[in-house]
Design the sequence.
């Protein structure tokens, strides 16, 4: 069996040329080839098109290339978390293209499979679909997305053998697995290189035929930045917890459920083994358990879509981002619980674009809104200025049209029987008069 050359990071970095399109694996700082990216930051290579879920944190990974002015365009799903990316996009210093996370993963998988492109219902009718070809398929509007390929892919795996076979660790598959197929030159940064045959065939996630070079690099906590530890900043008050409890009551034993950030994450803290609910996270895990109690971080545990270390329950499984979103689009997710900025009388949802802030982060919201069998929105009833979030028609950029099944606010619960916005329940301490006064949308009353 052939052996894949083992090189150092500096040699690898020199293989990237001015004007190249570079794919960078990783989700947050998990499975991120930081050593390769930092070596590239030491070169004079410029005018790069960067493709990845995000560019990393400030000064780490792709974030270092951004600071150096080496990137001319970035294509990804969530840039908002890096202030440098926001500044570069707003100033026009760096061009950017925003894609829903599942669309990005599938575009890379398509590019790696020699497929020119595909149609997806994700983002139909939204700002992200503007200027793209659309087609009605089986009665639904779908958006055409071109397959993505790069000149070079920098990916991160846990182990490699000398034949280039790769094994990923926990949620580190994310974008790495697809990116390994989608570039002319693939360089894998790995923790450990073992003799051929030491990775059992059934444990090989990326076959060696996709890999051109190996780099051995040991990962440390410092390499991961602030993504390395458990967050303890979750805000909990009685009204938020009431919304989480009400959302939990909608779930059934055996349901596969995806939880968004914000109030929905509180639902995870309420789920017990007796509930029998299977949590899904879009970065590649089914069977998500609670956060670790030992304070361990991303070096020792898988992470969820909020980039927070979690534990794995019995029967859990790991997979890559493309497979994860295939589960979502294929309607294998029974329910998604997400936050919202606006929900209107037609069950439209707006939850990805905050007023006055650049549109630089959509993540998996559009895929989940379209793909989950049932969509539950949890949000405060009003904005800080007192204006209603339950509106006649969404004024903020849409996430998806006609998708909301249930809205749970701190004041009320609304459903859409016969496609009509209907008040079905008051939350603890709320009155009908208060709900009417704070709701700008027209609704039907169907209180028990």
Sequence:
């Amino acid at each position: 069996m052939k052996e894949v050359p083992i090189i150092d990071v500096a040699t690898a970095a020199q293989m990237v040329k001015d004007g190249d399109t570079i794919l960078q694996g990783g989700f947050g700082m998990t499975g991120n080839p930081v050593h390769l990216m930092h070596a590239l930051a030491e070169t004079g290579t410029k005018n790069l098109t960067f493709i990845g879920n995000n560019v990393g944190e400030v000064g780490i990974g792709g974030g270092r290339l951004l600071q150096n002015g080496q990137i001319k365009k970035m294509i990804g799903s969530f840039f908002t978390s890096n202030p440098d990316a926001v500044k570069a996009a707003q100033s026009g210093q760096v061009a950017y293209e925003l894609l829903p996370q599942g669309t990005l993963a599938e575009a890379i998988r398509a590019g790696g499979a020699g497929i020119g492109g595909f149609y997806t219902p994700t983002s139909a009718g939204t700002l992200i679909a503007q200027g793209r070809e659309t087609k009605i398929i089986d009665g639904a509007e779908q958006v055409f997305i071109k397959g993505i390929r790069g000149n070079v892919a920098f990916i991160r795996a846990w182990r490699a053998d000398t034949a280039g076979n790769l094994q990923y660790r926990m949620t580190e598959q994310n974008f790495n697995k697809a990116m390994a197929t989608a570039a002319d030159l693939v360089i894998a940064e790995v923790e450990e290189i073992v003799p051929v045959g030491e990775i059992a065939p059934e444990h090989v996630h990326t076959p060696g035929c996709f890999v051109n070079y190996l780099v051995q690099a040991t990962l440390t906590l410092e390499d991961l930045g602030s993504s390395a530890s458990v967050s303890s900043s979750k805000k909990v008050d009685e009204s938020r917890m009431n919304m989480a409890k009400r959302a939990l009551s909608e779930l059934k034993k055996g349901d596969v459920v995806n939880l968004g950030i914000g109030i929905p994450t509180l639902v995870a803290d309420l789920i017990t083994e007796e509930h029998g609910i299977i949590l899904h996270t879009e970065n590649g895990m089914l069977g998500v358990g609670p956060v670790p109690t030992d304070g361990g971080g991303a070096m020792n545990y898988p992470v969820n879509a909020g980039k927070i270390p979690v534990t794995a329950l019995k029967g859990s499984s790991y997979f890559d981002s493309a497979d994860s979103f295939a589960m979502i689009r294929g309607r294998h997710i029974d329910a998604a619980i997400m936050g919202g900025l606006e929900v209107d009388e037609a069950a439209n949802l707006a939850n990805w674009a905050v007023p006055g802030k650049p549109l630089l982060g959509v993540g998996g919201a559009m895929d989940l809104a379209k793909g989950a069998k049932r969509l539950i929105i949890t949000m405060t009833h009003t904005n800080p200025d007192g204006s209603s979030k339950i509106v006649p028609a969404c004024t903020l950029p849409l996430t998806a049209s006609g998708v909301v099944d249930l809205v749970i606010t701190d004041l009320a619960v609304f459903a859409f029987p016969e496609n009509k916005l209907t008040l079905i329940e008051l939350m603890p301490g709320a009155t009908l008069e208060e709900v009417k006064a704070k709701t700008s949308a027209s609704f039907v009353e169907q209180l028990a």
About this structure: The chain has a mean pLDDT of 93.
